[in-house]
Amino acid sequence: MSNDSPAAPAADSQPEPFNARSLGASLTVKDLEQSVAWYHGVVGFAVDQRMERDGELRAVAVRAGDVRLLLNKDDGAKGWERAKGEGVSFMITTAQDIDALAARIRAGGGTLDSEPADMPWGVRAFRVRDPDGFRIAFSSPRPS
Questions:
Q1: Minimal CA–CA distance to 111: which of 98, 127, 123, 95?
Q2: Burial environment of residue 76 by CB neighbours within 10 A (0 to 12, 13 to 18, 19 or more)
Q3: Would you tell me how many other CB atoms lie within 10 Å of the CB of residue 128?
Q4: Kindly report the CA angle at 143 between 138 and 144, in degrees rounded to 5?
């Protein structure tokens, strides 16, 4: 008697782990121009693409290396006062000098939630909030 069904996987075999290369996030913001000014002018993201619909600016993509954020204009459909940035924190790693990046953000009018500090897991990091309250942690590996 022939058994044409596939062999069952061995009990100890595991599927191949997920292997991502980059992350992009889409954020709904109250004031699109203010958010673009903050991400571009204060933090240093490059404006990658501006998207219009019916002659109105609806979204702007900003990029820093492999990190891409899409900033979407809130249309008010879910209420103008809904909380933004709650329960979300982005972690962006860079090879650049963390203290210099923090100084750039301060000089551009940004406020740090925490000052650059050495962390026990081998990075130097600080935190900020964007104009809508989205939390971002910036870190770089500490020199050995």
A1: 127
A2: exposed
A3: 21
A4: 135
Q: Would the CA dihedral through 98, 101, 105, 107 be positive or negative?
A: positive
Taking only the tens place, the pLDDT of each residue in 36-71 is 999 999 999 999 999 999 999 999 999 999 899 999
Dihedrals φ, ψ of 136, to 5°?
-135, 130
User: Residue 41 is which amino acid?
Assistant: G
In angstroms, the CA 66 to CA 23 distance is: 8
Q: Residue 18 gets which letter from DSSP?
A: P
**Residues in a beta bridge with 26:** 70
Residue pointed to by tokens 């022939």: 2
Rounded to an integer, what distance in angstroms lies between the CA atom of residue 113 and that of residue 122?
A: 20
pLDDT tens column, 81-116: 777 777 778 999 999 999 999 999 999 999 999 999
